[in-house]
Amino acid sequence: MVRGKNILIGITGGIAAYKVCELIRLFQKNEANVKVVMTPAALEFVTPLTFETLTRDKVFIEQFANVEKKPEHIALCDWADVFVIAPATANTIGKIANGIADNLMTSLACAFKKPFVLAPAMNTGMWENEFVQQNISRLKNAGYKIVEPEEGFLACGTNGTGRLASIEEIYDTVEKLFSEKKYLLNKKIVITAGGTKENIDPVRYIGNYSSGKMGEAIADRAFELGAEVVLISSVPFKKPYRVILAVTAKEMSEFVKQEFRDADSLIMAAAVADYRPFEAAEEKIKKEDVEEITLRLVKNPDILSEMCKIKKDGQNILGFCAESENLEENAKKKIIKKGCDYIAANDISRKDIAFSSDYNEMILIDKNLNIRHLKKDTKKNIASELLELVYDKDN
Fold this sequence. Notes:
The protein is α/β, with parallel strands linked by helices. It has helices at 20-29, 48-55, 72-79, 90-97, 104-111, 124-128, 130-141, 167-179, 213-224, 249-260, 303-310, 327-338, 379-391; strands at residues 6-11, 33-38, 59-60, 82-88, 116-120, 145-146, 150-153, 159-163, 188-193, 198-201, 204-206, 228-233, 242-245, 265-268, 275-277, 297-299, 316-323, 342-347, 359-366, 371-378. It starts with 5 loop residues before the first strand and ends with a helix.
């Protein structure tokens, strides 16, 4: 429910700006408090007076209008529970995605750390532009909610995708942010992601094909559900929660030990290399110098086993295993051997799921060897289902 919530609505320079009047009315009808911020370009399409009449409050445009007390971009960030930009033009999307803060709207976006909703609207060609899509992907990965534009007749006289989503859909997206049960609130969850890399020399390493997408999806969803998330990853991610870069197994082990001390849970989604070179060359090995190279390998720390041995009462651990055969049998052996509370296992012999794919399918086994099958779905949805099963959201 949005009742009593503070909704900051940003309006950029697009023809769909007039539609936002109805969005404001809908929020007010459901007893939310609304303030409006506009870009200078938005003034070419609608007047501030329209929104001042609807909200019975001033419209914010100038970046430094209140500097004697507190800069507007700080004051409004403190006030708002959610920031909704509708319509969001390609220009403003690009600025937000790249950290540009050249007006009040983009300064707000740069400083805002709470739920953020963007409803793009633009010409089809602009929407399909590869750089615009890259910016959209970056924002999605950073936790922004994107209300995708609709297909239909556009102001430029063409048919295509780019029309502002319905006001009802934008409203529903915001309402869900507040109505969803935050069953991970006040829980600290440490999550690992990606495949570790073990140096042979300064330019070569032993590694695996893990992209980090599964761990990232779990971390994103846990954050949405209210958890304090620490993502320890061999892949760099820009997120609204803490991300610690750990390239090697030894680095990851140290960070996991440190962060798990006061955590409620550990989710080991990373593909940690089992072995590393006994000794890494300080200089690049020249291929013309030798015909053959023999690598002496030593075992890496078994992070999952180590954490299971030191976990305290009230802490739980979810491990992952990637198998190419006998999935269920090998997963059962692993959970017994490691001593974790859950094990999630997927079949890496399949080309339609797992490594580098946006999809996954797996079985979840608990310490009593009960099995749940999670059918093929996006990693985002698999992450949501995993968290529901492990943390029993209804209790």
